[in-house]
Write a structure and sequence with these properties.
By secondary structure, the chain is mostly helical. Helices cover about 80% and strands about 0% of the residues. Helix 2 packs across helix 10.
Length: about 200
């Protein structure tokens, strides 16, 4: 998979980045970490610019998120979970529980979940579905998706650029500290949730 991703990025540049990230949002087995860190590395030996790479990857993230939002607005949670019990789930490497987990995140954290979950593997893609099911307003959905995607994409792209030919070491570090990343994301969610709750009370 890594070699195929690298070949696509080398051949198509910015367009390849946007396309692969959009597909990654819909097809989680394609690892965004590989796409983004290698894209960062590419800026060290090509004329590609880091911020243009961030822009291309964020555009891809948004396209994929909106497509899954539309799926959520058309398909019920139960139907999607049932679908993942069969061959579709095996192909996508997704389980029915992943759908319910994303839905729980959205129910507990509300709009903040759309932002927080951009940093969590698997859930990063699926969170758009319960947002669609809940008919979340498109403007805040787009804004929160873009903010979360810019942060996540920028970090990995610049890490890949900094690591250079050792960009694969970034993937090993991410695997080692994934639990810490999840804890930080959860803590961020609590802070955002408290802020949103207090703001709502003040406005109410």
């Amino acid at each position: 998979m890594q070699e195929w991703i690298i070949n696509v990025l080398n051949q198509f540049g910015y367009f390849g980045i946007a396309a692969l990230i959009a597909i990654e949002n819909i097809f989680p087995p394609i690892p965004s970490e590989v796409i983004l860190t290698f894209s960062g590395f590419m800026t060290t030996y090509t004329q590609m610019n880091e911020w243009m790479v961030v822009l291309a990857s964020t555009l891809g993230s948004l396209i994929g998120a909106i497509l899954l939002y539309e799926v959520g607005s058309l398909v019920s949670q139960e139907r999607l979970a049932k679908l993942l019990q069969g061959k579709t789930g095996k192909i996508l490497r997704l389980k029915p529980g992943d759908v319910y987990r994303a839905s729980d995140w959205f129910q507990k954290k509300g709009y903040a979940a759309v932002l927080i979950c951009r940093f969590i593997p698997i859930i990063r893609s699926l969170i758009s579905i319960p947002a669609g099911m809940a008919r979340m307003k498109m403007t805040p959905f787009v804004v929160l998706t873009v903010i979360g995607s810019v942060i996540w994409n920028t970090i990995l792209i610049w890490l890949g650029s900094f690591a250079g030919t050792s960009w694969r070491s970034v993937l090993e570090i991410l695997d080692s500290y994934m639990l810490a990343i999840l804890v930080i994301a959860a803590a961020l969610g609590v802070v955002i949730g408290i802020f949103a709750y207090r703001r709502k009370r003040i406005q109410g």
